[in-house]
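Researcher: We plan to redesign the surface later, but first we want a full-length starting point. Tokens attached.
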């Protein structure tokens, strides 16, 4: 009985903790863990703009759309606000907001 308990304790210590998965959309890859460098709320109805850095040192601009009269409240964009050339609408904004802590 004692040997069984010892083996169970050793096996429990050997379990692997799942690693957070990378966010991938198109050419964009964001590797956890992510550090928020800055964030601010805009006076357009409450949109959030943030700058974040991922585990590999890549920096991203994040825009969460809460503009007045927006047709996409809470939508997440990378590298610019909606309509800006080069901005990317994130298809899984909820997962990205959780990763960024926004």
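Model: Full-length starting sequence:
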């Amino acid at each position: 009985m004692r040997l069984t308990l010892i083996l169970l304790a050793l096996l429990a210590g050997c379990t692997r903790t799942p690693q957070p998965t990378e966010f991938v959309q198109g050419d964009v890859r964001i590797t956890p863990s992510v550090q928020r460098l800055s964030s601010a709320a805009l006076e357009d109805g409450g949109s959030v703009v943030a700058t974040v850095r991922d585990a590999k040192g890549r920096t991203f601009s994040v825009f969460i759309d809460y503009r007045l009269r927006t047709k996409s409240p809470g939508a997440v964009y990378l590298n610019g606000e909606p309509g800006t050339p080069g901005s990317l609408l994130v298809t899984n904004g909820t997962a990205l907001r959780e990763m960024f802590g926004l």
